[in-house]
Write a structure and sequence with these properties.
By secondary structure, the protein is an alpha/beta fold. It has a single domain (5-246), classed as putative 2-phosphosulfolactate phosphatase (Alpha-Beta Complex), CATH 3.90.1560.10. It is 40% helix and 18% strand. The protein contains 10 helices and 10 strands. The protein has helices at residues 32-41, 53-62, 93-96, 108-114, 129-139, 156-172, 181-193, 197-206, 208-216, 219-225; strands at residues 5-8, 23-27, 46-49, 68-74, 77-78, 100-104, 120-124, 143-147, 235-238, 243-246. The protein has a 6-stranded mixed sheet, sandwiched between helices. A hairpin with a 2-residue loop joins strand 4 and strand 5 (77-78). Helix 5 (129-139) packs across helix 6 (156-172), helix 6 packs across helix 7 and helix 8 (197-206) crosses helix 9 (208-216). The protein is globular and about 55 Å long.
Length: 247
């Protein structure tokens, strides 16, 4: 029996055609996925992801005056002349409500590009974990959990989250097939955490992405990103319009 739940440890480790007919979940726990979820929970109208800084600036300029905010990072820090960095705790209703967020990050927004051939593209992180699981179970199509990684390297926080989702979706679907090696690695990492919030936080702090953020003084972002089920919403990326909205 072929498994219908797949973990991809990095976007470059699969061909985009493999996602055809399935549902992709883009995972960049530290921090793009977490921040996009916060933005939409803060009542942003939509998020427009951009792969490059200058493209983001150009997109924001053509939107009606006063309706757009620029958010994102390079090397973990706020981009010059941007309104916001990539810290999820700064994405609050007082700032985002009624606005369009034009957003670019080093890893997460680029991972979206790799998923354009999927039937649906969702955004997942610990802060909306339960909502993502329920959406995948209800959908029923093959699942592709795409870890963004950090600068082309596998990161434990993304793999940990992918393993947590893969385990529950497989259980709900009564999927008893033998998973592929990437999925087995993710399931094994989640098993080591056993769903313990302190273990999840420890893994995030010790990962490549977590160590980068600690060096930059963003431990508060790691703590927020390790928090499960803050929001009951699922961001969905519309490939045709290049827009992310809440479902």
């Amino acid at each position: 029996m072929t498994s219908h739940v797949h973990v991809h440890l990095l976007p470059k480790l699969f061909e985009p055609e493999r996602l055809q007919g399935g549902v992709a979940v883009v995972i960049d726990v530290l921090r793009a996925s977490t921040t996009i979820i916060h933005a939409l929970a803060a009542r942003a109208v939509q998020v427009i992801p951009c792969g490059e800084v200058e493209i983001a600036r150009s997109v924001a300029q053509v939107l009606p005056p006063g309706t757009a905010l620029l958010g994102g990072e390079r090397l973990g820090e706020r981009i010059a002349r941007f309104d916001l960095d990539n810290s999820p705790i700064k994405y609050v209703p007082e700032v985002l409500a009624g606005k369009t967020l034009v957003f670019t990050t080093t890893n997460g927004t680029r991972a979206l590009e790799r998923c354009r051939l999927a039937e649906r593209v969702l955004i997942g992180a610990f802060v909306n974990r339960r909502a993502i699981i329920e959406a995948l179970v209800a959908d029923g199509r093959p699942v592709h959990l795409v870890c963004a990684g950090t600068d082309g390297f596998v990161t434990a926080e993304d793999v940990l989250f992918a393993g947590s989702v893969a385990r529950e979706v497989r259980e709900w679907r009564a999927d008893h097939s033998i998973p592929d090696d990437e999925t087995q690695l993710a399931l094994a990492l989640w098993q080591t955490a056993s769903g313990d919030p302190l273990q999840i936080l420890q893994i995030l702090r010790g990962s490549r992405g977590g160590l980068n953020l600690l060096e930059l003084g963003f431990d508060h972002d790691i703590e927020r990103s390790a928090t499960c089920d803050m929001f009951d919403l699922v961001p969905e990326y519309d490939v045709a319009t290049n827009v992310i909205t809440a479902r």
